[in-house]
Amino acid sequence: MKSTVGVIGGGQLARMMIPPAISLGLTIKVLEEAQGMSAEIAATGVGDYRDLDTVLAFAKTVDVVTFDHEHVPQHVLHALVDAGIPVHPGPDALLYAQDKLLMRQKITELGLPSPDWAAISDADELGDFLDAHGGRAVVKTARGGYDGKGVRVVDDKNGADDWFTALAEDGRGGSLIVEELVDFVRELAQQVARRPSGEIVAYPVVETVQKGGVCAEVIAPAPTAAEPARAADGSASTVSEVARDIAVRVAEGVGVTGMLAVELFETRDGRVLVNELAMRPHNSGHWSIDGAVTSQFEQHLRAVLDLPLGSTRPRDPWSVMINVLGGPVGETLQDRYPAVTAAYPAAKLHGYGKESRPGRKVGHVTVSGAELDAVLADARAAAAFFEG
């Protein structure tokens, strides 16, 4: 069987693929963007993921190519496919993770529930949308935004003038996306894995908490996920069933291979709406390293190699993952490890090998157990101690 996986991108997602690759007896190689990145331990090359010659030379040393991020240009992805190199997910699927406007169009085409949205190219079009949606809306850039970047709430038609100017100066044209400001009660994330031969497995839907546009907490499974929700066809169902159905339809509809995360809004009137997509392991699934029979990182490797997929069953009734943001000034996470684990022995730390700076994800903590309140309290306390 194919046994060498190449990962483009040297961030923490690539880093967290290394332990399951070793357990599965695989060889994993990483093309990192610069020396000293999170996944340096498995880096076999340093180079620009936008440069075709660099990526092609790396890809020829592995059996299958996958990704730590979705920023590799389409012409590079297609060149790999044309050279006969298996790429998972493929360029035709990744397109919808790279471009939010194309994603919104595809989600609408698939008949899946979304916030009201429109493509806009000037302030007047933004003003028309604001007038029709209560005077406030969310504006997004089509490409490049993540962790709160490229997203802003506006209440004036001139609130995105700088972005319109940047589009005009870029010379390629294009549009921004404007979406209704959803009155949601919470944010959810649904992960599924799909292998090239078509097998799909789903993880429990989880609840996510964002701070400053960055994922701060994940509760798995999402509390009250068994309560009623409105399916896309208007029929009654549960939140977990609706979320799973949406993610499966996205995976099949765009041909995802590997892990897929669908970020969702649950609204006050019982709807579940698609927010964004990620076609790789995702922050909302980090709990699965310690909390599920098969972690999202092992599952991703299985999927891209077209191996039978593993059980997604939780090991405990509850798991809570808290991101460590910023980290202790003048110290490392490991400096604080003895004291934190002595106080919270159930806490599992995953450090990303990054230097601390305000707001930066430098690691995460997971705690699992039978009582949600106790698990949540311990996870928050342990993460706060690591943050300093």
TrEMBL record:
Quaternary structure annotation from Swiss-Prot or TrEMBL: Homodimer.
Xref: PROSITE patterns: ATP_GRASP
Function recorded in the entry: Catalyzes the ATP-dependent conversion of 5-aminoimidazole ribonucleotide (AIR) and HCO(3)(-) to N5-carboxyaminoimidazole ribonucleotide (N5-CAIR). Catalyzes the ATP-dependent conversion of 5-aminoimidazole ribonucleotide (AIR) and HCO(3)- to N5-carboxyaminoimidazole ribonucleotide (N5-CAIR).
Keywords, in A-Z order: ATP-binding, Ligase, Nucleotide-binding, Purine biosynthesis
Gene name linked to the record: purK
EC category name: ligase
One Pfam assignment: PurK_C
Residue ranges of domain ATP-grasp in the record: 104-305
Involved pathway(s): Purine metabolism; IMP biosynthesis via de novo pathway; 5-amino-1-(5-phospho-D-ribosyl)imidazole-4-carboxylate from 5-amino-1-(5-phospho-D-ribosyl)imidazole (N5-CAIR route): step 1/2
Positions bound to ATP: 100, 140, 179-182, 187, 275-276
Reaction catalysed by this enzyme: 5-amino-1-(5-phospho-beta-D-ribosyl)imidazole + hydrogencarbonate + ATP = 5-carboxyamino-1-(5-phospho-D-ribosyl)imidazole + ADP + phosphate + 2 H(+)
Descriptive protein name: N5-carboxyaminoimidazole ribonucleotide synthase
Annotated EC: 6.3.4.18
Record-linked PANTHER family: PHOSPHORIBOSYLAMINOIMIDAZOLE CARBOXYLASE, PURINE BIOSYNTHESIS PROTEIN 6/7, PUR6/7
Family: Belongs to the PurK/PurT family.
Ranges in a coiled coil: none
